[in-house]
Amino acid sequence: MAIATEAQAPRAQTARAPFDLTIDVFSRMVESGLIPQDRRVFLHDGRLYEKMAKTSAHGSVGAAVNRAVTRRLPEDWSLWPEATVVLDPVNAPLPDFAVIRSGDLLGRAAPERYPGPGDVGLVIEVAVTSLRDDLTTALEQYARALIPVYWVVDVTGRRILVHADPRVVDGRGEYVRVEIHGPGQSLPLALDGREADRVPFDEILR
């Protein structure tokens, strides 16, 4: 005897894909209050992340960086602590410090625009628990965006690594020159390819 069977309909396959945020969307979210301005949120590869809380060592060394660098900057440059810097449409980190070109371009004529690579002379990261990321993921991003100089203040290792001459090889960023500075030495404060001053290591890591 033949048994009638009911044909099973194929299961519907749901297509899912992540939605990558761009700097334009991120900016509108901040300006509208969807992202509270007191939260330390940044954009990495189209995703939102929040920076970790700072240790006491990070705070004290950060204050020393602020004092040591600010007093030596030429008039047309400013030190911006933990401000958004746009590297490309889907990456906008919050470096601990960025030395930003001052003037009409950023300060008055276009106050709504975040600084981009062409506005940045130097990025500084203070590494207490973040050294691995600062010397890999963050370094590659800054070099790929051709940020000219990148300092990593290694608090635990009591050294400051100065990276210069960025280039892009096979789509990945790297710095050609790396200098390691220690106690008793001074770091070149280079802006626009010229040494504006020197910063004593001992003013940053006593």
Describe the structure in brief.
This protein has helices spanning 23-32, 56-70, 104-107, 131-134, 137-144, 201-204; strands spanning 41-44, 47-50, 77-81, 97-101, 120-127, 149-154, 159-169, 172-181, 186-191, 194-200. The longest helix has 15 residues, at 56-70. It is α+β, with helices and mostly antiparallel strands and 206 residues long.
Name the descriptors:
two-stranded antiparallel sheet; disordered N terminus; 206 residues; alpha+beta; 6 helices; 22% helix; 6-stranded mixed β-sheet; globular
Which structural class matches the secondary elements? Answer: alpha+beta
**Considering DSSP H and I runs of 4 or more, what fraction of the residues is helical?**
10-25%
Shape label: globular
**Rg of Cα set:** 22 Å
Uncertain stretches of 5 or more adjacent residues = 1-6
Main sheet specs: 6 strands, mixed
Strand content: 25-35%
Strands side by side in the biggest sheet? 3-4-5-6-7-8
Please tally the helical runs, counting DSSP H or I stretches of 4 or more residues. Answer: 6
Mean pLDDT: 89
Q: Please provide the ordered H/E string of secondary-structure elements.
A: HEEHEEHEHHEEEEEH
The total strand number stands at 10
Distance between the termini: 93 Å
